[in-house]
Amino acid sequence: MRPGVDIEEAENGSPDFMESETLWQTLKSPVYWLSPFIPAAWIVPYFVGGVPADVKFVIAALALIPLSAIMVESTEQLSHRSGEVLSGLLNATFGNAPELIISMIALKAGLLDVVKASIIGVIQANLLFVLGLSFLVGGLTHRSQNFNRRGVRVERSVLMIAAISIIIPSVFDNFVSPEMYQHENALNVCVAIVLLVTYAFNMLFMLKTHPHYYSPKSGGESSPPDNCWPLPNALAVLFLSSVMLALMSEVLVGSVEETARNLGLSKAFIGIIIIALIGGAPESVAAVTMARKNKLDLTLGIAVGSSIQIALFVAPILMLSSFFIAPKPLNFVVGNVGIMIVLFPVMIFSMIAADGKSNWFKGIQLLSVYLIMALFCYFLPDMPNTPIIKP
Amino acid sequence: MRPGVDIEEAENGSPDFMESETLWQTLKSPVYWLSPFIPAAWIVPYFVGGVPADVKFVIAALALIPLSAIMVESTEQLSHRSGEVLSGLLNATFGNAPELIISMIALKAGLLDVVKASIIGVIQANLLFVLGLSFLVGGLTHRSQNFNRRGVRVERSVLMIAAISIIIPSVFDNFVSPEMYQHENALNVCVAIVLLVTYAFNMLFMLKTHPHYYSPKSGGESSPPDNCWPLPNALAVLFLSSVMLALMSEVLVGSVEETARNLGLSKAFIGIIIIALIGGAPESVAAVTMARKNKLDLTLGIAVGSSIQIALFVAPILMLSSFFIAPKPLNFVVGNVGIMIVLFPVMIFSMIAADGKSNWFKGIQLLSVYLIMALFCYFLPDMPNTPIIKP
Amino acid sequence: MRPGVDIEEAENGSPDFMESETLWQTLKSPVYWLSPFIPAAWIVPYFVGGVPADVKFVIAALALIPLSAIMVESTEQLSHRSGEVLSGLLNATFGNAPELIISMIALKAGLLDVVKASIIGVIQANLLFVLGLSFLVGGLTHRSQNFNRRGVRVERSVLMIAAISIIIPSVFDNFVSPEMYQHENALNVCVAIVLLVTYAFNMLFMLKTHPHYYSPKSGGESSPPDNCWPLPNALAVLFLSSVMLALMSEVLVGSVEETARNLGLSKAFIGIIIIALIGGAPESVAAVTMARKNKLDLTLGIAVGSSIQIALFVAPILMLSSFFIAPKPLNFVVGNVGIMIVLFPVMIFSMIAADGKSNWFKGIQLLSVYLIMALFCYFLPDMPNTPIIKP
Q1: Do A194 and C381 touch (CB under 8 A)?
Q2: CA B92, B93, B95, B97: dihedral to nearest 10 degrees?
Q3: Nearest-CA neighbor of C332 among C167, C175, C190?
Q4: Which of A154, B344, C38, C91 lies deepest, with the highest CB count within 10 Å?
């Protein structure tokens, strides 16, 4: 973004874009016709009193679509310059910014169960729903798609560490009496620090010592796009669309809880399925788009990278922050349901993605598991005590 | 089978076979000298009053051997025409027909525990016992055997879905109170439908879009056999031997329960080990025979294909049927023992078969796990409440 | 070792070594300057009355370092003659001799919990700590290291069998009432026999039928070392250093319990972490040394081979011996904590090592999991009943 351009203007999604003819060409795509919903999601509640939650929900959901699309476009523009590794990382980072922001707000309000549910829900949604849909959509036009399996093999064991880091404190919780509360907090803080350190080493590995593990194997178009954005524009659009996505997600999440309650859904279903799907909508669109373009390494970078980042970076940061901003500390204790929701996706992902190949049926398999687990959450009744996660 | 040949005659196992000289050549093998036990299993109880269950059991078991052998022979005859994929599929289908028939009868009689035990028992027996014995027998004559690992890698994640579909309702059962009975039934029905749809897509994948994932890698004799049966004969023999196998299995199962009770065996052992082994005897013989002939892709098609079909097709069909034919609906709730009995075989199979190679020690490993789990069932005491599966 | 050389002399670590100039050259390495601690660990408690446990602990720990180093050296000398398979096997055997001796003594004293804790602790320490440190150290000087993945793939399923053999009796224990005590003992004895038979077949597979599965892939120096020891010397040094290591481990273990109690550590932490790390110190040093020399097949032979030997040979032998030498029989029941401590290392090892490649980040991953599980044991409070394993 050039100096002197006002953020306010850029946020409305038009002035900055018009300056660049190539950006404008991009925006002619029909998906951007939904752009008016972006300001509408903000304006409607202010001007029209007593808007029902359902309406807010639909407007915000529609607004997310063009935002996700512009984010995908800007990420792809950057990927031609920075390589797919860094690009996928950028995408995952900006894709998880909404998560972090939403969770911080929920944490401050003391909604610890919702935070925990959405963390495990996002990991599950990324590995099963986003990747499943990507494999299916990609497989409909390509008989078999390839990706760099070396990176995936590293990632599956990192995901296993994430699963273990959630199982260990949950099992510990079964052994301690209330007076051992101090020990439990100490264990959770230590685990959070181990995860953060592991995440830092993972970044070092991906970006410095072994970037070739993550370089693309897929034969997607490696030629630069016809309309190439200037670097600052691409960065600015990526940043701004992330910010808007976060804000829009918040509107959505704020209204989805009431909407869902009206529809008689359980809290587990809201936290683990609805919030996670909405919070991860941008990554979903981006990952599926890349799969259709046969850039499966970018798809995996987004979906798997996002899961790792949630588990090894966002979750520990939230836990450590909770000691300062939340009424009581957040921990990793998620009960047997939470353990299943993290462990099964990691196990089935490990089996399916380890050979560096995908096809439509692999997509169907991942979606089947997602559907079975979503049905489980849907039918699970609300419990009186710590309802979402630990009945 | 030519038109005009009486089914009764064919069932006695001789007239139809004699017509074809090549069939006759086949029947000269010593294993067919046990054929008289086939009619004996039917005749003896009618003519001799008060035959003890033990005697019936032995006669029926001996009768199964020639029936299995002729079924293997006819399947192999078909495999030269239809390719190993379709042949393995045919074999698995006809191998599971007895299972489906026996389970339907048990379901009608309200023996839900026996049905559940035999379903999980068959999956375990196929993955551990049948495959273990095949790898061992094949490995005794071949230093290393190869099979198409692409298909196996797809199948192991399908099996993982099967395991998850059994674990999820079992875990759900721990959370619901009796008044949530409706929710539990609804979850089970939905999971059954997801499994059936996944199974249909699996067929589409195997037979239409990716048959090369299942085409043989092993260098077994691809030349046609010396004595080639006419196609209608091969089909007729396959069909009739399946029917006879089903009937014989029923005699066997009807007598095995009493036999086992006399011998002081627990219900878990009867359901999970004895009934599963007997119901799966035809597949066992077929799979081991193919392994000895170095046609390991056919072995896997039989053993693994059969497990998948039981989990994703037979079990859901039984559950949905139970609402119409059983006194109370069947569900997938199998308790912690049932979860172990499905999950461990799937996990160890995934580890052992993923590289597309087998040797005798892999067979020993699978058999060791089978032995440990059979010992567990053997020593497990009968519980007062839902004894087999959920103590 | 030449005939006529006194064992006493050799045990002091000098006379026999001096005779051979090449041995002497080896001993000039600075690590052997710690050798005086070997006799000191024996002499000090006799001459100085009332030595605190902490002092004994430090002396014995320092004494272990040169002993481990000489053991590594002699194993390497043998590896140039006998091939890495047999060498790794020898190393694992001599590395586990201390374990077996210590456990036998603890068994006789009725410390069944300590025995069980150290068995599962050693498996965990080998797969996570020793292998993690080896991968990390090796990866610091080599961008990527290779090893023979065929052997590792066999070993991971053998380890899975080991995990199942621990889970099955532990689950069984939940189902039986006290009067079923006989059944539980019978199951444990049967499982022990299955494991011993599997271990014997594993040896046959490794040494006779498929040794090429374990032959080195790494490009380490295959040329013989500059200073080549005579075969009898190498064998004698290996044997004597093993004996001394066993004795030294005993001093260490005898003092570590008191030391740890003074420091306020839980029994779970002592058994699973401290004793396992100390008992496995020789293998650790050997495995890491080999990794630094890019002989990763030897590293795996030591770390993984040692785990398999502990699970499939040492543990069953201890159990069967317990009927004769212990006040009450040992079993494999380890509770949920014990199941986790065996299962997670096996699962993450399977994911990380299956592709036959290692790098520094794989080491970090294994160490992270080890750290998380060690923290779990550290914070786990001592329970009144069967404190270490089954709270």
Answers
A1: no
A2: 160
A3: C167
A4: C91
Does any CB of chain B come closer than 8 Å to the CB of residue C154? yes
Query: Which A residues in the span 288-327 are in contact with B, Cβ-Cβ below 8 Å?
Result: none
Among B164, B186, B197, select the one facing A369 at the smallest CB separation.
Answer: B164
Packed helices C53-108 and C231-262: angle between N→C axes, nearest 10 degrees: 100
Round to whole Å and give the CA distance between B313 and B319. Answer: 10
Residues 6+ apart with CB under 8 A from B362: B132, B135, B139, B352, C154, C157
Provide the pLDDT confidence category of residue C391 given band limits of 50, 70 and 90.
Answer: very low
A307: three-class secondary structure by DSSP? helix
The tokens describing A66, both together, are: 């063009």
Q: Is B141 on the interface with C (CB under 8 A)?
A: no
B344 contacts in chain C (CB < 8 Å): 164, 167
* Residue A79 and residue A102 in contact, taking contact as beta carbons nearer than 8 Å: no
At B188-247, the pLDDT tens digits run 999 999 999 999 899 888 887 888 887 775 444 444 555 677 888 888 888 888 788 777
**Residue C164 with chain B: CB contacts under 8 Å:** 344, 348, 369, 372-373
Tell me if C361 and A209 make a contact (CB, 8 A cut-off).
yes
**Six token digits for residue C120:** 């599962």
Query: Which residues of chain B neighbour A344 with C-beta distances below 8 Å?
Result: 164, 167
Give φ, ψ of C143 to 5 degrees. Answer: -60, -45
Whether the CA torsion C235, C236, C237, C241 is positive or negative: it is positive
Mean pLDDT by 10 residues, chain A (391 residues): 37 42 60 80 73 79 78 72 65 67 77 84 93 93 86 90 92 79 89 94 85 67 60 83 77 72 76 78 80 88 88 92 88 87 93 89 95 91 50 36
- pLDDT confidence of residue B224: 52
Cβ-contact C29, C69 below 8 angstroms: yes
Interface mutation vs chain A, best among C267, C341, C368, C383, most A CBs within 10 Å: C368
H or E element, residue B262: helix B231-262
In the prediction, which pLDDT does A176 show? 77
A286 inside 8 A of chain C by CB: no
CB contact under 8 A, B171 and A336: yes
Give the C-alpha separation, A69 to A63, whole Å: 11
Whether residue C198 has pLDDT greater than 90: yes
> What pLDDT does B343 receive?
93
**Cβ–Cβ of C205/B359 closer than 8 Å?**
yes
Would you tell me how many other CB atoms lie within 10 Å of the CB of residue A272?
A: 31
B208 touches chain A (CB under 8 A): no
For C3, residues 6+ apart whose C-beta sits below 8 A from its C-beta are none
Optimal mutation site among C170, C365, C388, interface A, most CBs of chain A within 10 A: C365
| Residues in chain A within 8 Å Cβ distance of C143 | 209-210
Q: Can you give the pTM of this predicted structure?
A: 0.83
B299 φ/ψ angles, rounded to the nearest 5 degrees: -55, -50
| Chains touching chain C, criterion 3+ CB pairs below 8 Å | A, B
Task: Provide the ipTM.
Answer: 0.81
SS3 of residue C357 by DSSP: strand
Euclidean distance between CA atoms C167 and C177, whole angstroms: 18
Going by the DSSP 8-state scheme, the letter that residue A2 receives in this structure is -
pLDDT score for A196 = 94
Residues of chain C contacting residue B382, judged by C-beta atoms under 8 Å apart: none
> Are B198 and B309 contacting, i.e. CB atoms less than 8 angstroms apart?
no
Of the listed ranges A31-35, B17-21, B147-151, C5-9, the least confidently predicted one is C5-9
Alpha carbons within 13 angstroms on the beta-carbon side of residue C63 total 29
Mutate to test the interface with B, among C149, C152, C154, C157 (most CBs of B within 10 A): C157
